Amino acid sequence: MNILLLGGTGLISTGIVKHLLARKASVTLFNRGQRENRLPDGIEVIHGDRKDFASFEREMKTHKFDAVIDMICFNAREAESAVRAFAGRCDHYIFCSTVCTYGAQIPSNVLIDETFPQNPISQYGRDKLACEDVFLRAHDAKQFNATIVRPSHTYGPGHWLIDNIEFNPTAWDRIQQNLPVLCAGDGLGLWVSTHRDDCGKLFAYAAMNDKTYGQSYNATRDRIFTWRDYYREAGAALGKKAQVIFMPAAWIIAHDPARFGLLREITQFHGAYTSQKARNDVPEFHCEIEFARGANETFADVRRRNAWKTNADDALYQQLVDEAIKMGVEPVEA
Predict the structure, then answer these.
(1) I need a surface site. Which of 37, 73, 320, 331 has the fewest CB within 10 A?
(2) CA nearest 112: which of 104, 121, 124, 122?
């Protein structure tokens, strides 16, 4: 197979490339060349900016690929440009969407599958849903075979590890120092986290699999856990027992809505998904990396990159902890 990745150096992309190479695929990347690239030698890279639509479309029309995996499409204009670039020039187009297209309701069976109504509450989710519509219309028009893949929280080396309230938290440094950390609600909200290498399997093994044509898939592991589980296992990866203060999400968000945007738009809501459909159609998609092991890898990589976020200058976080304790809320072990 001759496969093009739009992007290719990001978190999930690294896992995709690993599994494409295991399939003996020929892999080409298209990106701006601005991120650290720790991918194997010998992979062809085309540098460019997909937001420069005319240049991007002109360049792509000089190539032909069996499949294109699009990891960096975030709005309908970019999707429409991709259709112009690849219609009739690839057999299979795989678009990386997001579970944020589903919205915030809880289904009667608790787990959200691909039949769940899409009613996104964030602009990110709305834009990704608009992209899905563009690619599925192209599929219906027989311009190429399209597949939609919707990851949830994906983590691993190359990125930081989120906590319950923000993307790049000081919580891990606080746990390292035996300081209490914050979590919204009672810590029993449901969540799913998938290692980048496991998530990458679905993209890599869906490529040119005709069962996936015209289909949409969740791309998550099959273990659902609570935020208490999450903090406990992340703490274990640090060799510590996490001490957690549980406070209402609205109370945390009110202190800084911009900083706690992750909590405001995503993590305060139900986040339990099933990927049984993907496992049925792509049997190679089975998740093997347990969260504690993956968290350990991620923390080690953050330190390697000198990207560890310290608590020393985080006055707001300490202020929230102090206020909660003053109100009589005591830390508990996760």
Answers:
(1) 37
(2) 104
Residues 139 and 215: their CA atoms lie apart, in Å, by 10
CA dist 171 and 311 (Å) reads 8
Q: Residue 193 forms beta bridges with which residues?
A: 153
Classify residue 291 by burial, with Cβ atoms within 10 Å: 0-12, 13-18, 19+: buried
H and E: helices and strands count for the chain: 12, 14
Q: Give me 234's structure tokens.
A: 């992340």
pTM over the 0.90 mark: yes
Set out the domains of the chain in order of their start, with CATH numbers. 2-155+193-219 (3.40.50.720), 171-192+223-271+291-333 (3.90.25)
Q: To 10 degrees, the CA torsion angle through 157, 209, 79, 201?
A: -10
In total, the chain counts a number of residues equal to: 334
